[in-house]
Amino acid sequence: MVYEYLGSLGFEDPVRIQEEATNPDLSCMIRFYGEKPCQMDHLDRILLSGVYTVRKGKTQLHKWAERLVVLCGTCLIVSSVKDCQTGKMHILPLVGGKVEELKRRQHSLAFSSAGAQAPTYHVCFESLAECQRWHRQASKVVSQRISTVDLSCYSLEEVPEHLFYSQDITYLNLRHNFMQLERPGGLDCLYRFSQLKGLNLSHNKLGLFPILLCEISTLTELNLSCNGFHELPGQIGNLLNLQTLCLDGNFLTTLPEELGNLQQLSTLGLSFNNFSQIPEACVKLTMLEKLAMAGNQLEVLNLGVLNRMKHIRHVDFRLNNLKKTVIDNLEGNKHVTHVDLRDNQLTDLDLSSLGNLQQLHCERNQLRDLTLSGFTLRALCANSNRLTTVNVYPVPSLLTSLELSRNQLEYVPDWVCESKKIEVLDMSYNLLTEIPIRILSSLSLRKLMVGHNHVQSLPVLLEHIPLEVLDLQHNLLARLPDTLFSKALNLRYLNASANSLESLPSACTGEESLSMLQLLYLTSNQLTDQCIPVLVGHPHLRILHLADNQLQTFPASKLNKLEHLEELNLSGNKLKTIPTTIANCKQLHTLVAHSNNISVFPEILHLPQIQFVDLSCNDLTEILIPEALPPTLQDLDLTGNTNLVLEHKTLDIFSHITTLKIDQKPLLTADSAGASTFWSHGLAEMAGQRNKLCVSALAVENFAEGVEAVYGMFDGDRNEELPRLLQCTMADVLLEEVQQSAVDTVFMANTFLVSHRKLGMAGQKLGSSALLCYVRHDTADPTSSFTLTVANVGTCQAVLCRNGQPLPLSRVFSLEHCPEELKRVKEQKAIITEDNKVNGVTCCTRMLGCTYLYPWVLPKPHIYSLPLTVQDELLILGNKALWEHLSYLEAVTAVRHVHDPLAAAKKLCTLAQSYGCQDNVGAMVICLNVGQDGCTCEVNGLSLPGPGGFASTTTVKDAPKPTTPSSSSGIASEFSSEMSTSEVSSEVGSTASDEHNATGLDASLMPRPERRCSLHPMPTLGIFQRQPSCATFSSNQSDNGLDSDDDQPVEGVITNGSKVEVEVDIHCCRGKGLEASPPALEETSLTLGPEEDSGGLFFRFQRQNSVSCAVLLPVSRELQKSPSTSCLYGKKLSNGSVVPLEDSLNLIEVATEAPKKKTGYFCAPAQLEPEDQLIVPHDLEEEVKEQLKHPQDARGGADTEPWEEDRVDHSEEFDTAL
């Protein structure tokens, strides 16, 4: 059973399935797949019993005596301890009664029934905990007004015997159990409840219909959903009082004729069965009003059958395969009032024969033409079709709501303009070019949604209108009507974002404004400072969005008058300051002003209700803050202010803020430099109108200490726990899985499945969408460029910008967007509710967590891989809320030319919020530079341009092959242009010998290997196994860091008898155009005596912080950048590489302190410790200087470089990690 379960989750390898089957964490998931029934002696939650001291009545005449007390169902059962088996007991109904604590006696409760003459029992318990437990359970019973017992989800095979003493039970819920037939308290005994009216036996896996249920003649409501029935017995016709029968989620294809005897039946649920037509037995049900047949196999809707059902009112045919409708005769149907045809395959729909139709749902079909009768029509929802015409005759005089969004309508139908009671009109995402004056001036219209059309202008209003909500976003408007605000005095919401507005109409014609506008969204227009004075005419504004316009100033006097402002978004403009009068906006709780030129921190820290402040990507230099911040401040974002310096006192004051985002000053290292050459990212997350953020993101740009990267996004919808767990664990799981398989579909799928398992108890009833992007080299072809592998479940998506065009890489696993998943879920008999959610819980069919929804919700991801090219510019990750409000093309176009990825991600979130998103929204933008323009190779004597555009003139001949494989990304690399490089593994414990001195040959005459970048790595001679978190080497490495076949250590390596713990990169070099040390590298020096002067050369060991290494560079007053040194800072130093043998290699190997663990690999401490100062042994100083002099002496005096003539005497300085 376990193997079958793991295989259905997505594991494919039999060996891996066996390994997973032994994992103890599997129990958190498997219990929902094959849960064991519960024994009757473990029913403490539904049955309380014990021997206690009991007294009957309130007077002192009765004595306390030991009795057996049982609380089960709706009754308290009191019996003698000796006679408890003979049936002599007192039964006290508790529904509507009382349970109270006794003050005069410790740990005692008084139970009483409803009514004036009802008896009372006092029970004394042994402990306070036991007393409280009985009190809680009894309080639930007495609070009921109907005798209802809920025993759902208890894994019962039978009901407790004591429950049958509760003869007043009218409703019994046994949902999600394992009820059996022939047992003492099984289904065959339920007829003993003489007053039972409602019985719920859904999800019990019965298989066969329990015939004895047909003898409970008092039943009026029976739910037998999801029990695997293939047929119904004829005895069901005996339930003559039955009014509601639910048979959803079974395998029924027909109904017995005896079902027609149920003349009281008014509601019949047959959804998610296997019916291919409306059962004929339904015609005989003369009182049937509601018929639900969603999720069946109907292909033709026969309206003639509905005509013969004289009492039918509501019909539900959602999620079938309906392709057409037919009618036997021209007789009209005057009974049906509500029809639901959502999610079918209809192309044309004519329901004009339904003369009394009041409400029609036909969303998500393929309709082109729709014809209806308008006599009684009140609501029409036809979104997401291909409608070009909608005909309703006669004019629907009762129509109040019309939703026709996401169609192909080019004009508003005339009959809509003539409707006198229409209140809501949604025609967004169509092809409209104009809005008729009759619509805009309607005296009944309250809400008008015409966004995402081609409207160029609006008619001028002449009369006052009652319009309250107006959505005009994503049109071609250059201006709004001059009388809009003066005639639409009830207007409270206006969204005119993504237009071409240059000005705004005045809000008042007299001295005082009557505007009631509260929410104004004007993002992505062409508004200038001249529009600001107009805003003063809206004194009731609460939310104002002016992002991505051309504002340069915001007059202080104007902002002072917006006293009711609660949310202000001014991001993406050219503002230099925020007016000081913002301190008068006492109700302001959100200020978003990122991506401006603000240099002075606004005076917002005195506002009493401020909660969220985003001033990222500005020019802030300092912050003047009060000694105490407002207690309401929860989120302060100051990232992207490169010149901002925060003092320790300021940070201490900010310490109480829940979320403080500031830049951590980057330290240039081999890791970061290599990664930043190819990609950089920015992340933005906004909570919106919700009080918590349920979106988390993952970004590791030096994954596995190699030139690889991992990015992810996780959306928990309503829970924040699972996204946080996935954020912390998923990268480590991926690192482990990459060790076991090099096939992208295998390690990505296993990453998701293992992460699903590791959620444990938290993942039982909570779920999360997940998106993971992995940038790597193809291990099968190490000379290839980068490969992007994307895997996802749920609704988070990744979009690649390739040559300016969006390329979706993910798949949306929801019932609305994935027909294959919808078919799978239907076949597995899930109940899909009207809001398109699986069992009413989630719209996702694949996600991490929600193990109790197996097999309908699975964790198996969609996986897609593609090679990255020079045309790939951006990678955008976003959650569901982002892509619901931004199209792929719009998102790519909006940020394609934004150079700062943080500002780009901020812009996407701002756009989504301005377009109507009120939910959590998250966006990550990764700027890619992985094409040939990022190459720094010198191949076959040709210099390829590097990142800085420099080229090398050195000729490369007969490059020796490397003797060992290299880094964690499978790259063997050497840097040589008057420079040699050593990458010595961390954790090997290599030792070196100083027996071989430097050769002293001119570096320019030496043959050297090709210099390769990460885009074109050197082919390796063997297979390199990427090391896991514990980073150990395989046995083919000897103690000196070489292959076991090598006899000699590396020349020039000084031995100190210690173990090399981290990577060391030391360059003893001379030459023309060497680059000066980068300022980001930390430097310390040790000055030697004057007798050891090196002839004017000045050297430093420079420590690079991400990986422990030391760099020895000659420094001069006239240094120029060389291709070699440029390549050094653009190349990821590799953990686990071994130095190849070459005669020209001059290395100094220095032992450093033990490394610190970081994502499975190691990096050196960020700060240089005092004990890290290099003490050069006296007996080695001469040898070091000799190694440095040999290349110079070999050249001779004639070859002396010009920069040597002007050199100044300096003492040697060394700085490295010991």
TrEMBL record:
It is an enzyme of class 3 (hydrolase). It comes from Phascolarctos cinereus (Koala). Protein phosphatase involved in regulation of Akt and PKC signaling. Mediates dephosphorylation in the C-terminal domain hydrophobic motif of members of the AGC Ser/Thr protein kinase family; specifically acts on 'Ser-473' of AKT1, 'Ser-660' of PRKCB isoform beta-II and 'Ser-657' of PRKCA. Akt regulates the balance between cell survival and apoptosis through a cascade that primarily alters the function of transcription factors that regulate pro- and antiapoptotic genes. Dephosphorylation of 'Ser-473' of Akt triggers apoptosis and decreases cell proliferation. GO terms for cellular component: cytoplasm; membrane; nucleus. It is a peripheral membrane protein. The keyword Secreted does not apply. Pfam families: LRR_6, LRR_8, PP2C. SMART domains: LRR_BAC, LRR_TYP, PP2Cc. Coiled coil: none annotated. This is PH domain leucine-rich repeat-containing protein phosphatase 2. It is found in: Cytoplasm; Membrane; Nucleus. It catalyses: O-phospho-L-threonyl-[protein] + H2O = L-threonyl-[protein] + phosphate. The keyword Repeat applies.
